């Protein structure tokens, strides 16, 4: 078995960056007995929420993303706080980022975003019957614009790369046929 080729020799925290910790894990690879450090991003689980209104519109958010230095169109989401369930995090993120609440929230599925270097999972939820009850309450360093689009427009928005965030695409793959 491939996993039997690897023996964990030790682990060392390198840096704490608030949203993740950087860790070096030292492994021995058999049969050569060669050793090597691997970088791991030790991160809390995330949630993504596909919020749909009673009239079939998706509640999207437009926000700046520092990694690519541009604004993206996405669905609400964020980190699962300590001692919080993924479903509770989904409900919280939806309301904080959009001001919307849902009649029903159900788990669509889970993925490992990048298991080569990350140890977390992203839980994807469908929020149905969404209606706006309050003003959004984004984090102090978030500036979010709420955008409503018909669910049937999503596949074309993906094809045109208007929506291009990989984890957002994954969530929509559970809801609509993208290809």
Q: What do these coordinates show?
A:
- The protein has 179 residues and is an alpha+beta fold.
- The chain folds into 2 domains: 2-42, no CATH class; 46-175, Nucleoside Triphosphate Pyrophosphohydrolase (Alpha-Beta Complex), CATH 3.90.79.10.
- Helix content is 16%, strand content 44%.
- The protein contains 3 helices and 12 strands; from the N terminus they run βββββββαβββββαα.
- It has helices spanning 86-98, 154-159, 166-175; strands spanning 6-16, 21-29, 34-42, 46-52, 57-65, 70-74, 77-79, 100-101, 104-111, 122-128, 131-132, 145-150.
- The strands form 4 sheets. A 4-stranded mixed beta sheet has the order 7-4-10-9, sandwiched between helices. Strands 1-2-3 form a 3-stranded antiparallel beta sheet, with no helix packed on it.
Write the layout of secondary structure elements.
Elements: E1 6-16, E2 21-29, E3 34-42, E4 46-52, E5 57-65, E6 70-74, E7 77-79, H1 86-98, E8 100-101, E9 104-111, E10 122-128, E11 131-132, E12 145-150, H2 154-159, H3 166-175
Parallel strand pairs: 4-10
Antiparallel strand pairs: 1-2, 2-3, 4-7, 5-6, 5-12, 8-11, 9-10
| Overall shape | elongated
**CATH level-four homologous superfamily name of the largest domain:** Nucleoside Triphosphate Pyrophosphohydrolase
Percent of residues in β-strands: 35-45%
Largest sheet: 4 strands, mixed
Given helix and strand content, the structural type is alpha+beta
Binned, the helix content reads: 10-25%
The number of helical segments is 3
Query: What's the count of strands?
Result: 12
* Mean pLDDT score: 94
Question: What is the number of independent domains?
Answer: 2
Radius of gyration: 19 Å
Could you say what the CATH topology of the largest domain is called? Nucleoside Triphosphate Pyrophosphohydrolase
Give the SSE order as H and E letters.
EEEEEEEHEEEEEHH
- The main sheet orders its strands as 7-4-10-9
Which spans of ≥5 residues are poorly predicted at pLDDT below 50?
none
CATH architecture of the largest domain, by name, is: Alpha-Beta Complex
In whole angstroms, the N-to-C terminal distance is 35 Å
């Amino acid at each position: 078995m491939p996993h039997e080729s690897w023996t964990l020799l030790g682990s060392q925290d390198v840096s704490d960056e608030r949203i993740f910790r950087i860790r070096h894990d030292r492994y021995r690879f058999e049969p050569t007995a060669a050793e090597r450090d691997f970088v791991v991003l030790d991160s809390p689980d995330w949630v993504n929420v596909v919020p749909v209104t009673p009239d079939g519109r998706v509640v999207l958010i437009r926000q700046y993303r520092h990694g690519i230095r541009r604004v993206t169109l996405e669905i609400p989401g964020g980190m699962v706080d300590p001692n919080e369930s993924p479903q509770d995090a989904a409900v919280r993120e939806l309301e904080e980022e959009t001001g919307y609440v849902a009649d029903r929230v159900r788990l669509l599925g889970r993925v490992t975003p990048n298991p080569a270097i990350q140890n977390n999972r992203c839980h994807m939820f469908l929020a149905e019957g969404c209606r706006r009850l309050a003003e959004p309450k984004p984090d102090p360093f978030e500036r979010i614009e709420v955008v409503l689009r018909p669910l049937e427009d999503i596949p074309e928005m993906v094809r045109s790369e208007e929506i291009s965030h990989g984890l957002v695409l994954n969530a929509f793959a559970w809801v609509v046929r993208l290809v």
